[in-house]
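## Example record

The block below lists the input lines for one assembly entry, exactly as stored, with component labels intact.
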Amino acid sequence: MKKMQIGIVGYGNIGRGAEKAVLAAPDMELRAIFTRRDVQSIKPISNAPVLPIEAAEKMVGEIDCMILCGGSASDLAEQAPMFAKNFNIVDSYDTHAKIPEYLAEVDKAAVSTTAVISCGWDPGLFSMMRTLFESSLPDGAGYSFWGPGVSQGHSNAVRGVPGVLNAVQYSIPLDSAVESVRNGSRPELSARQKHLRQCYVVAEPGADKQTIEQTIKTMPHFFADYDTTVEFISEAEFAANHKKMPHGGMVLRSGETGGNTQVMEFSLKLESNPEFTASVMIAYARAAVRLAAEKQFGAKTVFDVPLTYLSEKSRADLIRELL
Amino acid sequence: MKKMQIGIVGYGNIGRGAEKAVLAAPDMELRAIFTRRDVQSIKPISNAPVLPIEAAEKMVGEIDCMILCGGSASDLAEQAPMFAKNFNIVDSYDTHAKIPEYLAEVDKAAVSTTAVISCGWDPGLFSMMRTLFESSLPDGAGYSFWGPGVSQGHSNAVRGVPGVLNAVQYSIPLDSAVESVRNGSRPELSARQKHLRQCYVVAEPGADKQTIEQTIKTMPHFFADYDTTVEFISEAEFAANHKKMPHGGMVLRSGETGGNTQVMEFSLKLESNPEFTASVMIAYARAAVRLAAEKQFGAKTVFDVPLTYLSEKSRADLIRELL
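Predicted structure tokens for the full assembly:
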């Protein structure tokens, strides 16, 4: 059987993760990597050609699915509708509040293609769990916790503070909150009761550390509603201990049936957030290609795609081996 | 909108759980309970009519989905193909090895109906996790653990030992095994290394307890391959402490992407196994009715049904609230 021809658009952390995942998938072949940067500056792991993003339009029909690996704010809002006109696509669009309008835009473009949007782990696997848990246990309360892990958005916010050279922010779910959910007590938890925010900051020489710390801790939306710790470290320590991108988290639901407490839990413990995100996207790329082959066109979410479409295995094998 | 009309076939523990779940679902109405027992002997929680199972054939067109709550070995193999001829059905058929042949039988009968088979939690939710986990993390190893909780099959096996009046068997996942998986080491685990089996036995007066214990511990398939404990208790203690049907378990997968360890985990902690099983089945009953309305007939599994079909909420609401 002919292997699915995959294109990767954007070669940052997720793009590199997608490359590794495609190379590991026996039913896929990496056809090309597309970039807006100087193609000479990209050194892929594989020997896939690196092409300027404009070259994609000449490859309609040669690529079964494009993995869009750009950022939600900067890249995807523009790229997804553009690529969905001619290619099946998957992405990990994660601006939760804007998903309905993004979905509608992509759906308009995906007239004769299939686009699976927001299919990383949150949105993505976590969203699936929230829906499956709520449907299985309607009388209950659901909770999502993130971390321990690096939040890119919060790290960027800290890096934007005057006097900060470099920074990373770890989101830490509070054990007390997780335990109270696991015990079935359905607590009402404030932002502060759910997560702690730990910042590691490399300050510019001579910067006023007290002011930096104060600016971070009082930053609205990002930190003001949380208990936040700020620790100043050297660039060397930053390089040695804070370059990895671990993440993870939990989706929990505790509920009741007939007076009995029932608790459902899903968790991820990831050494590499972007690689895992990419690995999930590759499973949905397989689904996008299969859906398109059945002419199930348009913009889809993880809620719309049966699990049979994700696996390399046949339905019969899944039923025999995993049901 | 007209409520879905639900029938329950079989009024044991799962049947009673299904009744509670239907009563709690705002989009469903319990039309009737069908039994093979004397209808006078059944005292339902609701005021739904209790009818002999033969009465069902006169109600074709009046019931949108039948929840089959019988046992896999004794009831379902016969009932499911019979009911699927005229009704949409769901069941929790759990004889894993025979599922492919059972699916084929039900599929043959479900020509103009939709049947979702094996949709409890294992098979069911656990199966979904095994497939989702394997698809998300192909380079890895998957594990299922059951318990702590009552295994009906093993309890029945103990109750069959001569001299045993009553008994319950708890399956206990071993922490050492679970931890080794969580740590990403992909251990190869024997049956004995994964689960402990605890039996609480009420013996007949004057029975030879040593012989009973020996018979249990050496029973092939059920106990011989495990570390098994046997504790003799009084009927009073049995009644006081061992009448509940808690269960649960875990599906884990540890794998690698680009040299980074990634761990996925799903767990259930259930105070009532039959009520939770029934609650999941009710979500799939909703799916069966919707699939049938779209003429997606035949026998389906949890692998075939998109999550949108399970929820009472609209797709747009799911996307806005849970994606």
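The longest strand of chain A covers residues 247-257. Chain A touches chain B through 65 residues (CB under 8 Å).
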